[in-house]
């Protein structure tokens, strides 16, 4: 006999796992893995790329302009000042490690989930039926 489930009503929240995207240093700073795409039509956080946050920046990759645009965008998205955000490694690579100073780890997780679409409301039936 097949198991029966109680009727599901209303929406539910889907939590996005973000633990593999960052590390917290001994000094409390956060190092975020970022996959940057310079020369895009507009600057925006677009989702995940493996174990990194995928970010498109409109600036070209010449003269560090894309890195500067990336720092500005991430500072804005995380509510930090640009001087609190720096490229730790990968200055000339698409895969970068970005250091964020002064960001509470709980706020980081909340912001990452917001940026990556976590907590989106989806129908409960879609969750049960795995149609998401």
Fourth-level CATH superfamily: YggU-like
Which H/E pattern describes the elements? EEEEEHEEHEH
CATH architectural category: 2-Layer Sandwich
Provide the β-strand percentage band. Answer: 25-35%
Q: Can you tell me the residue ranges where pLDDT is under 50 for at least 5 consecutive residues?
A: 119-132
**Cα radius of gyration in angstroms:** 18 Å
Total helical segments: 3
Q: What best-fitting shape do the alpha-carbon axes yield?
A: globular
In the residues, how many domains can be counted? 1
Helix content: 10-25%
| Gap between N and C termini | 27 Å
What does the main sheet amount to?
A: 6 strands, mixed
CATH topology: Conserved Hypothetical Protein Mth637, Chain: A
Give the C-level CATH assignment.
Answer: Alpha Beta
Number of strands: 8
Arithmetic mean pLDDT: 84
Helix-strand makeup class: alpha+beta
Q: What does this entry look like structurally?
A:
This protein has helices at 65-78, 105-115, 124-129, and strands at 11-13, 22-24, 30-37, 44-49, 52-56, 85-89, 95-100, 121-123. With 132 residues, it is an alpha+beta fold. The protein has a single domain (12-129), classed as YggU-like (Conserved Hypothetical Protein Mth637, Chain: A), CATH 3.30.1200. The strands form two sheets. Strands 2, 3, 4, 5, 6 and 7 form a six-stranded mixed β-sheet that branches. A two-stranded antiparallel ribbon has the order 1-8. A hairpin with a 2-residue loop joins strand 4 (44-49) and strand 5.
């Amino acid at each position: 006999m097949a198991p029966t489930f109680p009727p599901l009503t209303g929406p539910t929240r889907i939590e996005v796992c973000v633990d593999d995207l960052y590390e917290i240093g001994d000094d409390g700073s956060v190092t975020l893995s970022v996959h940057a795409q310079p020369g895009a039509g507009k600057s925006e956080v677009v989702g995940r790329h493996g174990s990194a946050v995928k970010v498109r920046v409109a600036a070209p990759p010449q003269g560090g302009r894309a890195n500067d645009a990336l720092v500005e965008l991430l500072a804005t998205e995380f509510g930090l000042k640009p001087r609190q955000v720096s490229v730790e490694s990968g200055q000339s690579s698409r895969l970068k490690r970005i250091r964020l100073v002064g960001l509470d780890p709980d706020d980081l997780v909340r912001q990452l989930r917001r940026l990556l679409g976590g907590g989106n409301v989806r129908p409960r039936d879609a969750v049960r039926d795995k149609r998401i």
